Amino acid sequence: MLDASNNLTVLHTETATGVNLGGNVVYTTWTLNTPMRLRPNLVYAFDVFSSGNGMVTENSLAGSSPYPGGTAISSGGTRGGNPIFPDNPQTVSNFDRVFHLDMTSVYALDLGDMIGGGNGRGTGSFGVGIRPDTGGTVAAGVFGGNHPNVGGTFVAFPGSPYIDGLFVPDQNTKITTTNLTYAFPDTDGNHWDAVRNGVSVLESNGLIRPLRLADGNITTFGIGLHANAGITFDLQAIRASLLPAESITSLVAVAGGRDGSQTPVGYVLFDGVLKWSGTLGRGTALNLAIPDTVRFLPLASTDGGNGYSNDKAYFAEAFLMLSVPEPAAWQLLALALSGLLLAGWRRLWGR
Predict the structure, then answer these.
(1) What gap in Å lies between CA 72 and CA 324, rounded to an integer?
(2) Helix (H) or strand (E) segment spanning residue 147
(3) What pLDDT is stored for residue 126 in this prediction?
(4) Are strands 172-174 and 137-138 parallel, antiparallel or unpaired?
(5) Is 79 buried (19+), middle (13-18) or exposed (0-12) by CB count in 10 A?
(6) Positive or negative torsion for Cα 92, 95, 97, 100
(7) Measured between alpha carbons, how far is 193 from 260 in angstroms, rounded to an integer?
């Protein structure tokens, strides 16, 4: 991913083997083992480098560009003797390498985006946080503070229709505005920073701790909730925002806390009933089916019984997966709706 200063952040790396079709033609298809989800309004680069003798290509004609829809990049520097990402990744290079990128639409809502004030479809602000002890919003890049002795706190959150409230888990703690509770373990009752969109935690010195997947790669999607913290989403309100043919099917996420030296514990609850809990270590992939009857989805972290220091907990790539009909069904739905509208118009006209 490229920032405004042309600096690259490596989000994901994989290896593949090319297939020589004869002569100087090599056609290779890479299918990522771990699909990457891309945020809107950001610049991403796809770079290929060889672990052997490299790739030889001919330069295209001077002044021409085989990439009218984007910008070619040229690798520079080395990693283990192999070419790696350039100092200026947007250096224009008219090479005749041709890439065809297939991107598949995934019907999902980003829960972190809702923390950032969005609707789950990329409209929220990255890095924004909410304090679980007061419900106050914290801007991106602003430290949320150290909050001692706030265990058992619950606050409603009027800043988003999709977030019911936030809490600091400590033994029997209220987790919804309807007074559902859950018996968490006894914690030290302290909390650090804020529950954030796309960031694990912001330190007091301004250092951003990222969200990480189980393979160590960074992701910009998800929820950071340094222990002890919890947030409850209102699925009933979220369902009311969906298109007519959409429905929530499951929660997917990577529950982790890899860059902390302690062992926070994560929790996923459905209407106050525990559905998953585990130590937030290198990352545990979750895929939990959500029945249509479930209204509240609380996600929480606790300190594991040894204090909240360094407990950088998160649910990376936390998405509500949606089911939608096949295109043919959409067409049938559109025809049905148009038929209803036409029938209604004829009734009005007949009068």
Answers:
(1) 36
(2) strand 146-147
(3) 94
(4) unpaired
(5) exposed
(6) positive
(7) 15
Query: Taking the CA of residue 15 as centre, how many other CA atoms within 13 Å lie in the half-sphere pointing to its CB?
Result: 5
Helix extents (H) in 165-245: 235-240
Whose tokens are 């249509």? That residue is 292
Dist CA 208 CA 203 (whole Å):
6
CB-based contacts of 15-19 (< 8 A; 24+ apart in sequence): 15/51
Q: Please tell me the distance from the alpha carbon of residue 226 to that of residue 204, in angstroms, as a whole number.
A: 13
Tokens representing residue 46 in the block: 């796809």
Name every residue whose Cβ is closer than 8 Å to that of residue 351 and which is 6 or more positions away in sequence.
Answer: none
155: DSSP letter? E
Could you give the CA distance from residue 183 to residue 172 in angstroms, rounded to a whole number?
A: 4
User: For 105-156, how does the pLDDT look when each residue is reduced to its tens digit (9 = 90+)?
Assistant: 568 899 999 999 999 988 999 999 999 999 999 999 999 999 999 999 999 9
Question: 237 — phi, psi (to 5°)?
Answer: -70, -35
The label of the residue with tokens 């602003």 reads 142
pTM tops 0.85, yes or no: no
Q: How far apart (Å, rounded) are the C-alpha atoms in residues 343 and 336?
A: 10
Would you say 280 and 264 are in contact if contact means Cβ atoms under 8 Å apart? yes
- Structure-token pair, residue 26: 């090599």
Residue type, 336: A
Q: Is the CB of residue 179 less than 8 Å from the CB of residue 249?
A: no
Three-class SS state of 336: helix
Q: How far apart are CA 196 and CA 94, in angstroms?
A: 41
Nearest to 45 by CA among 22, 76, 23: 76
Q: Which residues contact residue 313 at a Cβ distance below 8 angstroms, ignoring those fewer than 6 apart?
A: 200, 224, 225, 226, 227, 229, 256, 257, 260, 264, 266, 280, 301
Average pLDDT over every residue of 27-50: 64
CA distances from residue 293 to 28, 275, 281 in whole angstroms, order as listed: 46, 15, 31
